[in-house]
């Protein structure tokens, strides 16, 4: 067992003691006291805390240290099915987020398109795009970061304003700018949080993020008119899909006739 695994095991035992030395909702001692107690450097302690965070035992933040979590509490679910919903606020892509609101006023800026955004929007590299940056969550708690990128069609329109009115940018694109009905495609990936993203979400630097990339296509031209990239704390949320049966798997099934063995062609 490595030193960081030994430290993680000791801290885990303190959480599981009866009564627990570190009960659910309490904070672990800071880096200074723990490195002194265990006689290790900050790097080893960071690995130990990272292991506990991966197990869902603690949440580490740059601001308040490590908070002890309930290991029996399941992660929140991000519904990324194939259905877009709508309520009086507009389109909803995650059912759980229908009541989430911006924590702060969205920031807006024109900037040269980063290479991946230029590719997704099908515009030349370095072309001006409008970035709209928001931090969103329930009850004033930051849960996700949503960055939207729009091409030059947004220039000198309400899409540049802090508030884009009822229904947001999608209603403006569909009804005011003549791009309805919109269609969307989405990919799901993962990456490490940048220092700025970690600060906004209250997670460790380099913490895991779920990355949901959604491309909005014009109903009149078929071209991309917006790219939305949503970053979600991978330690608190999991992607959930409903798996349906294809016609080939329709019940009742017939017994399989082949066995899946190593080395056999599939």
Question: What is the element layout, followed by pairings?
Answer:
Layout: H1 3-16, H2 31-38, H3 42-54, E1 58-61, E2 65-68, E3 76-79, E4 85-87, E5 90-92, E6 101-102, E7 107-112, H4 115-121, E8 128-137, E9 144-150, H5 168-176, E10 183-192, H6 195-201, E11 208-217, E12 224-233, E13 237-240
Parallel strand pairs: 3-13
Antiparallel strand pairs: 1-2, 4-5, 6-8, 7-8, 8-9, 9-12, 10-11, 11-12
Helix pairs in contact: 1-3
Describe this structure in words.
There is one protein chain. This protein has 266 residues and is α+β, with helices and mostly antiparallel strands. The chain has 6 helices and 13 strands. The longest helix is centred in the N-terminal third of the chain and has 14 residues, at 3-16.
CATH topology of the largest domain: Chorismate lyase
Helix-strand topology string: HHHEEEEEEEHEEHEHEEE
Q: Round the mean pLDDT to the nearest integer and report it.
A: 87
Instruction: Point out poorly predicted stretches.
Output: none
State the helix count.
Answer: 6
The helix fraction, in percent, is: 10-25%
The rough form would be described as globular
Counting DSSP E segments of at least 2 residues, the number of strands comes to: 13
Write down the CATH class of the largest domain: Alpha Beta
Rg over CA atoms, rounded to whole Å, is: 23 Å
Q: Structural class of the helices, strands and pairings? A: alpha+beta
CATH architecture of the largest domain: 3-Layer(aba) Sandwich
CATH H-level homologous superfamily name of the largest domain? Chorismate lyase-like
Distance between the termini: 39 Å
Integer tally of domains = 2
The main β sheet shows up as:
7 strands, antiparallel
Q: How much beta, percentage-wise?
A: 25-35%
Pfam family, one: UTRA
Protein name: Transcriptional regulator
GO molecular function, one term: DNA binding
InterPro entries: Bact_HTH_transcr_reg, Chorismate_lyase_/UTRA_dom_sf, Tscrpt_reg_HTH_GntR, UTRA, WH-like_DNA-bd_sf, WH_DNA-bd_sf
């Amino acid at each position: 067992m490595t030193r960081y695994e030994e430290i993680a095991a000791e801290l885990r035992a303190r959480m599981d003691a009866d009564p627990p030395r570190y009960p659910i909702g309490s904070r672990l001692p800071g880096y200074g006291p723990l490195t002194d107690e265990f006689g290790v450097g900050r790097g080893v302690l960071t690995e130990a805390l990272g292991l506990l965070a991966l197990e869902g035992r603690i949440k580490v933040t740059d601001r308040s240290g490590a908070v002890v979590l309930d290991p029996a509490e399941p992660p929140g679910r991000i519904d990324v099915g194939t259905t877009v919903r709508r309520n009086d606020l507009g389109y909803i892509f995650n059912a759980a987020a229908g009541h989430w609101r911006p924590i702060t006023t969205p920031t807006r800026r024109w900037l040269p398109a980063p290479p991946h955004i230029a590719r997704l929007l099908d515009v030349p590299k370095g072309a001006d795009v409008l970035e709209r940056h928001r931090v969103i969550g329930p009850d004033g708690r930051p849960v996700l970061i949503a960055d939207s990128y729009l091409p030059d069609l947004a220039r000198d329109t309400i899409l540049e304003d802090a508030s884009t009115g009822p229904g947001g940018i999608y209603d403006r694109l569909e009804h005011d700018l003549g791009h309805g009905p919109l269609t969307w495609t989405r990919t799901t990936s993962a990456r490490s949080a940048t220092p700025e993203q970690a600060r906004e979400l209250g997670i460790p630097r380099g913490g895991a993020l779920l990355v949901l990339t959604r491309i909005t296509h014009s109903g009149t031209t078929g071209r991309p008119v917006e790219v939305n990239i949503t970053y979600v704390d991978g330690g608190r949320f999991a992607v959930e899909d409903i798996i349906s049966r294809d016609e080939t798997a329709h019940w009742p099934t017939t017994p399989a006739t082949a066995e899946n063995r190593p080395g056999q062609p599939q």
